[in-house]
Amino acid sequence: MTRISRVLLLVVWLAFIVYALFFAPGAGGGEDPWLRPLLTLQADEPSLLAMFSLLGLFPMAFACMLLRHDDRAVPAWLFVILSFGLGAFALLPYYILTSNTHAGSHDLRHPQGLRKATESSITHGILFTVTLLVMGWGLLLGDLGVYREAFGTSMLVNVMTLDFLLLTLLSVYAIYTGSRRRSLPQAMALLGLIPILGLLIYIWMTRMDQSVSPYIPSQTKPKMRRRAGTG
Asked: Helices 144-153 & 46-66, crossing angle to 10 degrees?
C-alpha cells in the first residue's frame, strides 16, 4: 500500500506541474488580469481574495502538522517554507519522499519553543478563527459569477483553485496516515474534506500525543536502554 501511495502521489504531482505549465486556461504573466490585484491584495472581488488568503493559511496548518514531529530523514521545514509560495507543488514531494520512512528515526530538528507553538491550542484557535472569518467573508460577499469568469480567464486563479483542492485532498491523506500510526479510527480522514478547519481539528485532537514520534534526546537514550534492560 505504501508503494502504491508513493506512485499515486508522484503521478498527481507531475500531472499538476504539467497542467499548470501547459494546459491551465486563461492568460498568464503580465496579461493575467488578476495577477497584480491578488499579489498586492487589492482585488475588489472578495471570493478571489479569500481564496488567495486561504492558500496562505493552508501552509500554516501543515506547518503545525509537520513541524511538531520533524524527525524524519527528510526535513519537513524546507517543504513547509516552500509551500507558502508553491502550495501543493512543495508539499506533495515531502509526502512522496517520506511515505516509506518511519517516524522517530532522528532527533527533532527544531527548538522546543517552536514545537510547543505548533502544538499550542492558542495557535490552533487563532488559525481556526481567521480561516473561518476568511471563508465566511468570501462566501457571503463574493460573487460566484465573477469567480467563474476569473477561473477561465486567469491562469493564476485557475491554478490556485486547483492547488486549494489538492491541498484539501492532501489533508485527507495526511490525516489518514497519521490516524493509522496512532491506531485511531481511519474515518477521521474525512475531517480533511473540510479545508484547513478539518486539518486543524485533527492537529488539536492529537497535539499532546507523542506515541507516533516521541522525542528522546540522544544523551538520554543509553539511560533508557539500561532501564529497559533492568526491567
From this structure: 80
Q: What is the pLDDT of residues 132-184, one digit of tens each?
A: 999 999 999 999 999 999 999 999 999 999 999 999 999 999 999 888 888 88
Whole-model pTM: value is: 0.84
64, 142 Cβ separation under 8 angstroms: no
